[in-house]
Write a structure and sequence with these properties.
By secondary structure, this protein is mainly beta. The chain has one helix at residues 264-269, and strands at residues 9-12, 19-25, 30-35, 40-45, 50-55, 60-65, 71-75, 78-82, 88-94, 102-109, 115-121, 129-134, 140-147, 150-155, 161-166, 171-177, 183-191, 198-204, 210-215, 219-223, 229-234, 240-246, 252-257, 276-280.
Length: 293
C-alpha cells in the first residue's frame, strides 16, 4: 500500500489575501483557485511549481468549469461566461442583490451540470444571503435564503445529498437533492461551537466523507456520511477556506487559506498563511463537474 502523509505542507507560498475555491482540472492536471480580493482566477501547476494569475475586474466569489472549455465565474456584479485564458465573454445574470452590501460567495457545478451559487452579506448585519441555481437558459432560480454567508456547497457521491454551510451559524445542513435541482428535507448535519470553528468551503470524497475547512480553527474536519467526526487535520495556517482533491489519482488534498486581517503575531507563527497546502489521503476525491450553458 502507498504510504499516506498525515501532515499538510505548503505547495504554493503565495500570500493570498483571500484564497478560495480550489478545483482540480483532470484534463490539464493543474489546480485552479481564486483570490477573492486580488481579484483573480489562478492556474497552479504543481509539477512545474508555477502559478499564473488571470485578473478579474471586481471581486470573484467562485467559478466552475464549463463544458466545452472555459469557466462560469460569479463576480460581484453578476455571473459571466469566461474563456480558458480568463477573458470575460458575456454576462448572463445580473447580481440579484445590492452590490454595496452583498456579493456572490461559494458555488460549484451540481451533479446535473448546473451552476449553483450562494451570496453573502459583507456587513454581516442581516441574514439576507441566499442560494441560487443558474438554469440552462441563463435565468436565475432562488432555492432558499435565510443565511448570512452561503458556503460549504458539495454533493454526496451518488448526488442525492447536498451539503450547505452558513459560516456564522457554524452549521452544515444536509438536504435531499432531486434531479430537478430542488433541495428538500433540511436537517442539521454538523455544528461546531469552538470560537474559531466556522465552516467555510467543503468537499466530499469517494467514500462519502464531507471535509470542512474551519476558518479561524486552523484545521479541516473530516466527517462521515452520518455527520460523525472521523478525524481532524491541522495545518500551519489558521484560516483554511476550501479544499479540493487533485493529482493523477485524486488522492492529494489541496487547501486554500486566507491572510487578510490576521494579526502580526499569528503571521509570525504561521508565515505561509495565504498559501496553498496539500497532503496525501486514503480515499480519492470525485471528479468536478462541468456546467452546461
Amino acid at each position: 500500500m502507498t504510504a499516506v502523509s498525515t501532515a499538510f505542507s505548503c505547495v504554493l507560498d503565495i500570500g493570498a489575501s483571500l484564497g478560495e475555491c480550489p478545483l482540480w482540472s483532470i484534463d490539464e492536471q493543474v489546480l485552479y483557485w481564486i483570490d477573492i480580493n486580488a481579484p483573480s482566477l489562478n492556474r497552479f501547476d504543481p509539477a512545474r511549481g508555477d502559478n499564473a494569475a488571470m485578473p478579474m475586474p471586481e471581486s470573484i466569489g467562485c467559478y466552475a468549469f464549463r463544458e466545452g472549455g472555459g469557466f462560469v465565474v460569479a463576480l460581484r456584479g453578476g455571473i459571466w461566461l469566461c474563456d480558458a485564458n480568463g477573458r470575460l465573454e458575456r454576462r448572463i445574470v445580473d447580481a440579484p442583490y445590492d452590490t454595496a452590501s452583498y456579493r456572490f460567495n461559494d458555488g460549484r457545478c451540481d451533479p446535473q451540470g448546473r451552476f449553483v451559487v450562494g451570496t453573502m452579506n459583507e456587513k454581516r448585519d442581516a441574514d439576507g444571503g441566499a442560494l441560487y441555481r443558474v438554469e440552462r437558459d441563463g435565468s436565475l432560480s432562488r432555492l432558499f435564503g435565510g443565511m448570512t454567508i452561503s458556503n460549504g456547497l458539495a454533493w454526496s457521491p451518488d448526488g442525492r445529498t447536498m451539503y450547505h454551510a452558513d459560516t456564522p451559524a457554524r452549521t452544515v445542513t444536509a438536504f435531499d437533492y432531486a434531479a430537478t435541482g430542488a433541495p428538500r428535507g433540511a436537517r442539521t448535519f454538523a455544528r461546531w461551537t469552538g470560537e474559531g470553528e466556522r465552516p467555510d468551503g467543503g468537499t466530499v470524497d469517494s467514500a462519502g466523507h464531507y471535509w470542512a475547512a474551519l476558518y479561524g480553527g486552523g484545521k479541516l474536519s473530516q466527517l462521515a456520511a452520518d455527520g460523525s467526526l472521523v478525524a481532524e487535520h491541522p495545518l500551519p495556517a489558521m484560516c483554511p477556506t476550501m479544499c479540493a482533491f487533485g493529482g493523477p489519482d485524486l488522492r492529494t488534498l489541496y487547501v486554500t487559506t486566507a491572510r487578510q486581517k490576521r494579526e502580526a503575531a499569528e503571521l509570525a507563527r504561521f508565515p505561509q498563511t495565504g498559501g496553498i497546502f496539500a497532503m496525501r489521503v486514503e480515499a480519492p476525491g470525485l471528479r468536478e463537474g462541468r456546467v452546461r450553458l
